Amino acid sequence: MSGEEAPTLQPEQEKKLDDPPLDASQAPQESGSSPAAEEKPLSFRSLVLTGYGGYDKVKLQVKTQKQPQLEAGEVLVHVKACGLNFAELLGRQGLYELLPAPPVTMGMEGSGVIEAVGEDVKDRKVGDRVIVLSRSGMWQEMVVVSANLTFPMPEQMSFEEGAAIPVNYLTAYMMLFEMANVRPGKSVLIHMAAGGVGFAVTQLCQTVPDVTVFGTASAPKHETIAQGGVTHPIDYRTKDYVEEIRKISPKGVDIVLDPLGGSDTQKGFSLLKPLGTLIVFGAANCVTGQKKNLLAMAKTWYNQLSLNTLKLMQSNKAVCGFHLGYITDEQLISRTMFKLLELYGQGKIKPRIDSCYHFEEVTDAFRRMHERQNIGKIILLPEAKKEEEKPKSSPEPIENVEKTEAAVNDKKEETTEEVKAED
């Protein structure tokens, strides 16, 4: 629903993402390896959604389990950084349909270093720095994924930048160039212009000559988004953005990118010029408090745009929907990712990192995005906080927790310990 999702995997790939990841220090064992080496347990940190609800439903756990073997075409990645997307806010509330039921490790994008490769992997090797896409499961230290879902990182790219590119920039690129066919001289309205997708849209618009960008954001963020390329920042909290746009461009705009839904979709359609395009890629208006808000959902649904083909024909406008999670064409995704990496190498795009939080601080990360405080991408770091980074008060104890459903299904070969996240 949010438009900030990772590509849908084929069933056999999805199954492997739920398999236990390997330890960074262990390469796949040869068939002649000793049983003791194969059965050596490993531990890794993981953020697990234990149920639907507030921030407390995402638990930091240390899992211990046996080491599996890589299958053909798979790679083991030691994750260095992960992206936080609005889809995870929806997922925590049970509103993201592509996320498996709890208990589940969330996270759809990340970056890291390949620790081992399976058979038939020809274009990846141990030590490669890669960007990784997945439907879920990226919020942990070690992941096993298909090599086809990894992309080499440019030498100058940081792990934080690598984790910030996939979901936001794939979404922005496909909407602008595959759907809306943005061209020189066009105008674009992007809501939540200070978010990850907002920055991506703004930067990509600058690769096309003479594109005017209208961006809605709270007033304190205007200077930053203007420096980033937004032509006309608009404070949606104190002004009617429809009226403000009409003052500048009486005829409206050519492209509206709508992550909000509800009445804002209707407003977006009304702002379109003839032959304009509205692309709905989210329903952020459904998310108000920490937990699912049935009233907000009903209000958004009630106020959604309702059209018939006759009205579309008479208005000469186009309405589209975009959801990266339902794109199954891996060639399209790969082609777009390599185009984005090319643009990064040319200095035409560069993710803006708002903040980085260690796994222990996931509650703070969620709160920052939920309260719309971020300007750019929020990144999660799997590695534990260093002692000097921790608060002066004594550290929270590690508590034993019951085995998760996934562990039970794994024949009770996995145990977990829960680490209390910082508030």
TrEMBL record:
Keywords: Oxidoreductase
Signal peptide stretch: none
One example of a Gene Ontology biological process annotation: negative regulation of mitochondrial fusion
Residue ranges of every copy of the Enoyl reductase (ER) domain listed in the record: 53-380
Segments of this protein annotated with the region Disordered: 1-40, 382-423
Sequence ranges of Basic and acidic residues compositional bias: 383-393, 400-423
MF annotations from Gene Ontology: oxidoreductase activity
GO CC term (a single one): mitochondrial outer membrane
SUPFAM superfamilies: GroES-like, NAD(P)-binding Rossmann-fold domains
InterPro entries assigned to the protein according to its UniProt record, in alphabetical order: ADH-like_N (IPR013154), ER (IPR020843), GroES-like_sf (IPR011032), NAD(P)-bd_dom_sf (IPR036291), SV-ATPase_mito-regulator (IPR052100)
UniProt cross-references to PANTHER family, sorted A to Z: SYNAPTIC VESICLE MEMBRANE PROTEIN VAT-1 HOMOLOG, SYNAPTIC VESICLE MEMBRANE PROTEIN VAT-1 HOMOLOG-LIKE
Name of protein: Vesicle amine transport 1
